[in-house]
Amino acid sequence: MKKTAKFAITSLAAGVALAAISSTAHAQQEWTMTTTWPDNLDLIKIDQHWVELVNQLAGDELQINFRAGGTLMPGTEVFDATETGAIQASGDWPGYWAGRSPAFSPLATTTSLFNGVDYLNWIQQWGGWDLYQEVYGNYNMVYLPYGITNNESGFMGNTPIESIADLEGKRLRLSGRDQGRVLEELGGSQVTLAGGEVYQAIERGVIDAGEFSTPGVDYNAGFSEVADYWSTPGWHQSASVFGVMINKDAWDELSEETQETLKIAADATMAWSLAWSERQSTEATVKFQEDGVEISTLSAEDLATIQDATNEVILRGACEDPMHAKVYHSMISYMEHYANWRDITVPFNMSRSIDNLPSLEEIEACM
Questions:
Q1: Phi and psi of 174, rounded to 5°?
Q2: CA–CA gap between residue 78 and residue 36 (Å, rounded)
Q3: Strands, E, within the chain: which ranges?
Q4: How far apart are alpha carbons 27 and 198 in whole angstroms?
Q5: Nearest to 311 by CA among 183, 186, 190, 182
Q6: InterPro entries, alphabetically (predicted)?
Q7: Are strands 89-92 and 29-35 parallel, antiparallel or unpaired?
Q8: pLDDT at 352
Q9: What Rg do the C-alpha atoms of the chain give, in angstroms?
Q10: How far is it, in rounded angstroms, from Cα 185 to Cα 166?
């Protein structure tokens, strides 16, 4: 009896120890994540959608404590906080970091180039995903693109912009390094303002017109209350990408299965975000018109001039920075390659047909 009891106790102790080791190996991790968006801007819904999916799918391994932009730190500080590991993750728009590397600009948006489906294609099948890892990897981060919106609204304000001639001498709120350069080529002047300041800048006449995001986001931000005119299309941001910066050390602590779960959640959120924003944009356009906002559309000739200016800016930037050149080289290579199928499917193709692209040879000369 004594030997049996001793064996039972020993076995029980070993079982408890094994359970403890197993529990430790699979202990749930907790992350703190914030974003560049305050909770009064609809773009935060893209971040929230991804976090909710991750918490559902990886709940036994990882839980993310999400905080709205500005509640932990100013939005301008989230890059450094994620890079250093002060927080594990943050949602962003890559263009905000173009001052660190100009390569961030095309990872965020393009002027008169990609639409939303182009970004989806490029990220998923034409090498874009690897370039996000390369650029963010220089700052001790992994990057998961998880949001795509189609072209932005365009310029809204109390000064009509019916042609590019009307841009001459105008002060316009515009985000993005390359976007600002194109605007300057067209005679306008870029004014940099945080998204939450655009409403008041239009209302007070600090700027002649401004842009922020898609019609859905802009309408919910109150732009129809302060703008009488709306100039389309949003050539300055023909599509936009959003995603999550993840500290590399925190990422490496996850199991491969959990890492894959986060990627799956990002892919699902990317598809959702494009459809969500297009539905929002459609409903908001109707509301802008009902509120009396006057909409004008630039001519084909004006858009061709904008494309020429865009090509010049891309080539100039390529020769200033090799990584900037590498990203655009990949994008334009995609456009040329996809054209083999895209252009014989007009008008049912999913992408933009374009016969005036920057020269790959000239970009290669700068790489």
A1: -150, 135
A2: 7
A3: 29-35, 62-66, 89-92, 141-152, 155-157, 171-173, 189-191, 209-210, 229-232, 234-247, 294-297
A4: 45
A5: 182
A6: DctP_fam, SBP_TakP-like, TRAP_DctP_sf
A7: parallel
A8: 87
A9: 24
A10: 13
Q: pLDDT tens-digit profile of 345-364?
A: 999 999 988 989 999 999 99
Question: Is-contact 151 234, C-beta < 8 A?
Answer: yes
Q: Which amino acid is at 367?
A: M
CA distance 345 to 353: 10
Token pair, residue 366, equals 């700068």
CA distances from 3 to 7, 10, 11, 12, 13 (A): 6, 10, 12, 14, 15
Main-chain dihedrals φ then ψ at residue 222, nearest 5 degrees: 90, 15
Please give the single-letter amino acid code of residue 344: I
CA 37 from chain centre, in angstroms, equals 12
Distance CA 146, CA 244 (A): 7
Reading the block at residue 339, the tokens are 């054209």
**Cα→Cα distances 159→18, 34, 155, 179, 340, Å:** 72, 36, 10, 20, 42
Q: How far apart, in whole angstroms, are the C-alpha atoms of residue 143 and residue 106?
A: 15
Distance CA 127, CA 333 (A): 10
Confidence of residue 22 (pLDDT cuts 50, 70, 90): very low
Residue pair 83/300 in contact (Cβ under 8 Å)? The answer is no
* 202: its two tokens: 């239009």
Cα separations (Å) of 337 from 4, 330, 333?
75, 10, 6
Burial classification of residue 248, based on how many CB atoms lie within 10 Å of its CB (0-12 exposed, 13-18 middle, 19 or more buried): middle
User: Which two tokens mark 203?
Assistant: 């209302």
In whole angstroms, give the CA distance from residue 259 to residue 280. 31
Run of H or E including 237: strand 234-247
